[in-house]
Structure formats: structure tokens, C-alpha cells
Write a structure and sequence with these properties.
This protein has 107 residues and is mainly α. The protein has one domain: 23S rRNA-intervening sequence (de novo design (two linked rop proteins)), CATH 1.20.1440. The protein contains four helices and no strands. The radius of gyration is 14 Å and the shape is elongated. The relative contact order is 0.16.
């Protein structure tokens, strides 16, 4: 059985991959491009920063780095919600991705 850190590394990486795929399918409008780039940055940052958390050398460094992960996860949720609430994408298209992002944020 995988440890929690390994499970979280896997989940955050899968979230990042899904974010990249969503970004590629966004409409080619100016607002979708702007929101999409923000989503791409924050969504992939969750995984990259979580990996850094796993390499923390002290409790203080761990707390600092996990705080960054939480901020990026929250921002990812925001951009996903904004894409839906502005009608750029349908809620059905984002339902499972948004649920995963919110669940990771809650952890």
C-alpha cells in the first residue's frame, strides 16, 4: 500500500495532467485564454509544490511549503469555478475535476 505522501504525489500529478488537457480544449477566445493560463499555472503548481513539501528538511519548511500548496489549490478551484460561472465551459465538463480539486484542497 502506498503512503499518504506517495498517494498525494500521484493525485496532484493526475490533477495537473487533467488541467493541461482542459487547457488544450478551451475555446480560443481572449477570456478563455487568460483564465486558462491562470488555471494551467496554478493547477500544475499544486503538484510541483507538493513534491517540494515531501522534501522539506524541517517542520517550519514543511509548514511553509504546504501553505503554498493550499494557496495554489484554492486558486485552481477559483479558476475552475470562474470558467463554469462565466459560461466558458459547462458545469458538466468540470464537475469531476472541480470535485477533485476541492477534495485535494480539503485534505
Amino acid at each position: 500500500m502506498n503512503s499518504l505522501p506517495e498517494l498525494m504525489k500521484d493525485r496532484t500529478k493526475k490533477l495537473a495532467i487533467r488541467i493541461v488537457k482542459v487547457f488544450r480544449r478551451l475555446p480560443k477566445t481572449e477570456e478563455a485564454r487568460i483564465f486558462g493560463k491562470q488555471l494551467l499555472r496554478s493547477g500544475t503548481s499544486v503538484a510541483a509544490n507538493y513534491r517540494a513539501v515531501c522534501r522539506a528538511r524541517s517542520k517550519a519548511e514543511f509548514i511553509s511549503k504546504i501553505g503554498t500548496v493550499v494557496e495554489e489549490a484554492d486558486e485552481t478551484v477559483f479558476w475552475l469555478e470562474l470558467l463554469v460561472e462565466t459560461g466558458i465551459v459547462s458545469s458538466g465538463q468540470m464537475e469531476s475535476l472541480l470535485a477533485e480539486a476541492k477534495e485535494l484542497l480539503a485534505i
